[in-house]
Write a structure and sequence with these properties.
Length: about 180
């Protein structure tokens, strides 16, 4: 699944002490497959992580849709499980995105590209928080308490955030091509 794949490719050990169990000192830098990769490969990896995030958002939306159609009584445990899996996938992707940002800002001395990656991460955080709020506001328990104007504003915020994400990804690709 997404979470398992992302965790397996993550730059950081998922559990403290996992590095020692694997025979690597925790003070040593974790093995990261992208360390000596060309910038083009790092940018491609960011795009792959974005595709994984998009898939996770689709799973979250589908899980919420299934939850809304499951009742009453509503199947909250199943929805909670979906949210947990998606949260793990987002966390794994975020760890790797932050590792790419650190690589670009540090060793690679590419502050412009690192800034794009940081902006991307912040936009994804905004998108996730907004989608979560929309789902909460649409919960069956709040039926009749919806604020249509606020719901519309939040939906517009998600759309604008997605547009900004697309722009940052284009800028990242263009600026990466220019840097090589």
């Amino acid at each position: 699944m997404i979470a398992a794949e992302a965790a397996a490719q993550s730059a950081l050990p998922a559990v403290p002490g996992a590095a020692a169990a694997a025979g690597v000192s925790e003070r040593e830098e974790p093995v990261w497959p992208w360390k000596d990769a060309p910038i083009r490969a790092l940018v491609q990896r960011i795009h792959q992580l974005q595709a994984e995030r998009a898939q996770a958002f689709r799973r979250l939306e589908e899980g919420h849709r299934q939850y809304l159609h499951s009742g009453p009584p509503y199947d909250f445990p199943r929805y909670r499980s979906t949210v947990h899996e998606v949260t793990q996938a987002f966390a794994a992707a975020s760890r790797e995105v932050l590792a790419v940002e650190a690589e670009l800002a540090g060793r690679r001395a590419q502050p412009l590209l690192a800034g794009h990656v940081r902006s991307l991460q912040q936009l994804e955080e905004t998108r996730l928080a907004t989608v979560a709020l929309l789902q909460l506001m649409g919960a069956p328990e709040l039926t009749g308490q919806e604020d249509p104007l606020q719901m519309h504003q939040l939906k517009m915020k998600v759309i604008k955030t997605m547009e900004a994400i697309s722009e940052v990804l284009q800028d990242l690709k263009f600026d990466a091509e220019s840097s090589e």
